[in-house]
Amino acid sequence: MLDAGGGGAVARIGFVADTVSAGPAGSGLTAGQTAFTVDLAQAQKLIDGLAEARDRLQELYDQNVGFMILGSPGQDPYSQSATTTIKQTAGTDPGGYGWASLKAIDALNSTIESIQASLATYQNQEQANADAFKGEGNQS
């Protein structure tokens, strides 16, 4: 897709990303998808940045696993309660840090795949156009 801006045609590709936004008052967060475009020349840079963010988030998740298997420092009810709360906060049940991290990693992977698919579609179309001008394309 071409977007005429800044006095000349700028090649841009469109993609869809998983997003989270605030729902109606008091309803919490809602998952959705949002359409974006990116300058073709910046697409790989965007992919690399998203992959770096995903990898860093994975590192943080891996460090967090220790909190999910934390043992109580004592047998008193306060230590037991604190340990349970830490495990729930760090865990993979909905609302926990681990859960949020895994959801974010999945969303980043999905967004990266979407950009790569759009980039491949654009490149395939460009090749088909080039082939057609050379007389090598489908002449039907």
Explain what the structure shows.
- Strand 2 (8-22) and strand 3 (29-39) form a beta hairpin.
- The two termini are 24 Å apart.
- 6% of the residues are buried.
- Helices cover 55% and strands 21% of the residues.
- The chain is an alpha+beta fold and 140 residues long.
- The model is unreliable at 1-7 (pLDDT under 50).
- The protein is built from three helices and three strands, in the order βββααα.
- The chain has helices at residues 43-68, 77-90, 97-133; strands spanning 2-5, 8-22, 29-39.
- A three-stranded antiparallel β-sheet has the order 1-2-3.
Between the first and last Cα atoms, what is the distance in angstroms? 24 Å
Oligomerization state: single chain
User: Count of DSSP E strands?
Assistant: 3
Shape: elongated
Biggest β-sheet strands, sense, barrel = 3 strands, antiparallel
State the helix count. Answer: 3
As laid out across the biggest beta sheet, the strand order is 1-2-3
Q: Indicate the mean pLDDT.
A: 85
Gyration radius over CA: 23 Å
What is the helix/strand order? Answer: EEEHHH
| Percentage of β-strand residues | 15-25%
Q: Given the helix and strand composition, which structural class is it?
A: alpha+beta
Note poorly predicted spans.
Answer: 1-7
Explain briefly what this protein structure is.
The protein has 140 residues and is an alpha+beta fold.
How are the SSEs ordered, and which strands pair?
Elements: E1 2-5, E2 8-22, E3 29-39, H1 43-68, H2 77-90, H3 97-133
Antiparallel strand pairs: 1-2, 2-3
Helix pairs in contact: 1-2, 1-3
